[in-house]
Automatic annotation (TrEMBL):
Protein name: Uncharacterized protein
Keyword Cell cycle among record annotations: no
Keywords: WD repeat
Stored Gene3D superfamilies: YVTN repeat-like/Quinoprotein amine dehydrogenase
Spans of repeat WD: 156-197
Classification via PANTHER family: CARBOHYDRATE BINDING DOMAIN CONTAINING PROTEIN, F-BOX AND WD-40 DOMAIN PROTEIN 7
Length: 197
């Protein structure tokens, strides 16, 4: 809650013994989802801070940190119950946050460091430690495109190090930006494998 003059006052404090690496409000603002270093995705009521559910992978024995969490956003279809999550071991998992059940998954041969949903299409991007950005179809979980630096070393048309952030343009459906450890923000078009600038 804002108190005025730019001061932010916490209305709810959510405590957990494991560190949270990422979090997001649900589209209707009723829930907060957080990804933790122990590999557990926890869902909290935003008004009370009470935990209402959690998603735990059963395919790993040791903790595999969650690197990003995203509620699916489809304004034309209303609220959805899907969460997109990524992990340091390369897993990308779709969960139903109401039931806590896994819907679909894919495994990347890299550390997957982040993801972002397309605002209108059933597609998402994943980001990782190999400098490439992958576009997936959410329905099939098939990779449709890889965005990366071209073969000409003198041209900076893609990342040269880990990619940590990406976001689709809110109005132009085919455009997105990305940033990473190479200290460069790239502008991309979904139809081209190399960045525009």
């Amino acid at each position: 809650m804002s108190k005025g003059k730019g001061e932010i006052v916490a209305s709810v404090k959510i405590q957990n013994e494991k560190d949270a690496l990422c979090c997001q409000y649900s589209n209707n603002k009723q829930f907060i989802v957080a990804g933790h270093t122990d590999g557990v995705v926890r869902v909290y009521e935003s008004q009370t801070g009470n935990q209402v559910n959690q998603m735990t992978r059963c395919d790993v024995k040791d903790d595999v940190p969650v690197t990003s969490v995203h509620f699916k956003s489809q304004p034309s279809k209303g609220e959805t119950t899907t969460i997109l999550t990524t992990y340091t071991d390369g897993k990308v998992i779709l969960w139903n946050y109401e039931t806590g059940k896994m819907i679909k998954q894919v495994e990347e041969n890299r550390q997957t460091l982040g993801a972002t949903y397309h605002p209108k299409l059933s597609k998402f991007l994943t980001l990782g430690d190999n400098s490439a950005i992958y576009l997936y179809d959410e329905e099939t979980m098939k990779r449709e495109q890889t965005y990366e630096k071209g073969m000409v070393s003198s041209v900076v048309d893609g990342h040269s190090s880990r990619v940590f952030a990406a976001l689709f343009h809110p109005l132009q459906q085919t455009e997105f930006v990305s940033g990473g450890w190479d200290s460069v923000v790239h502008f991309w078009d979904l139809r081209q494998p190399n960045s525009l600038r």
